[in-house]
Specification:
This protein has two helices and 18 strands. The protein is of the alpha+beta class. The strands form five sheets. The chain has a five-stranded mixed sheet with strand order 3-2-5-6-9, with no helix packed on it. A five-stranded mixed sheet has the order 10-17-18-13-14. The protein starts with a helix and ends in a 23-residue tail after the last strand.
Length: about 280
């Protein structure tokens, strides 16, 4: 009798343990998807023929030109393709369908957390033939209404920084000014700025989708816990208004930062920086 009770208890414990593990796995998976949506980009568009009619079933492939990764998609019944969870990078796009020439377009740059659109116009011909688009209108983020400032690797690398404090580049965004009594440089808390008249030190900082701030109870202040090296940052975006559903828990500004990653080619850099107050303008 005791043995049966012990077996029942053991089976019950095992069931509870398995249920808890499954629940943790589901929560972790959903959380990963949520953070991925914050930092990653997406691309969508319509595939049409020369008459403007949609081309359902067209095969679309987006290729990361730095890493060589392919992101395939298929146009749906209304000719629209959607590719999500794209890391910020430079891409090339190709599309093909039976009875049409292969479409190719390069120079598609997706910034952190953007939703962009590129329409594809196929020309009648054999698939072995190709149409390369070398000149196109600048890519605009037309899928959301988020306002702010994108700071890319060129600005990060070329602009002077006092003490090489990466968050000082947030002042490039319109409406971002220095908080009263604050200073520039690494001794200043990274989010201690005023954005669009809001309270200072309330901006949220995300690094690769992970919150890098801690909330101080009863103060409303967010303190930045980690400041990456200037050389480690690929780009970041100051998001000020009209957030999408993925953002929240902030005063009125998001700093969405992505760190640099490798490519399919060996590369490196050597640098030397001179910072001397005798060279300052004033």
């Amino acid at each position: 009798m005791n043995n049966q009770r012990n077996r029942r208890r053991s089976n019950l414990c095992i069931r509870w343990l398995l249920s808890a593990l499954v629940l943790l796995g589901v929560v972790g998976f959903v959380s990963t998807l949520a953070w991925t949506q914050v930092t990653s980009s997406s691309l969508t568009g319509l595939v049409t023929d020369p008459s403007g009619a949609v081309v359902p079933g067209a095969k679309v492939v987006l290729t990361d030109t730095n890493k060589g990764y392919d992101y395939p998609a298929t146009a749906d019944s209304v000719g629209r393709y959607v590719i999500t969870n794209l890391p910020p990078s430079a891409y090339s796009l190709s599309a093909e369908a039976p009875g049409f020439k292969t479409y190719r377009r390069g120079g598609i740059v997706l910034d952190v957390g953007t939703s962009s659109s590129v329409d594809v116009r196929l020309e009648v011909g054999a698939t072995a033939q190709a149409v390369d688009v070398t000149a196109a209108a600048p890519l605009l983020s037309t899928q959301d209404a988020v306002t702010g400032q994108e700071v890319d690797r060129t600005l990060i690398n070329d602009l002077p920084l006092v003490g090489r404090a990466i968050f000082d580049l947030a002042f490039l965004a319109p409406g971002v000014i220095q908080a009263p009594g604050a200073t520039f440089g690494p001794q200043n808390n990274g989010n201690n700025f005023v954005s669009n008249g809001g309270r200072n030190a309330t901006a949220e900082v995300l690094i690769d989708g992970v919150a890098a701030t801690t909330y101080e109870p009863n103060t409303g202040i967010n303190t930045v816990l980690y400041t990456p090296s200037v050389d480690a940052v690929q780009e970041f975006k100051i998001m000020q208004n009209n957030y999408t559903a993925e953002e929240g828990f902030t005063g009125n500004t998001y700093v969405n930062m992505v760190l640099r990653s490798g490519t399919n080619q060996y590369h490196g850099s050597v640098y030397d920086f001179l910072r001397n107050d005798k060279l300052d303008a004033n």
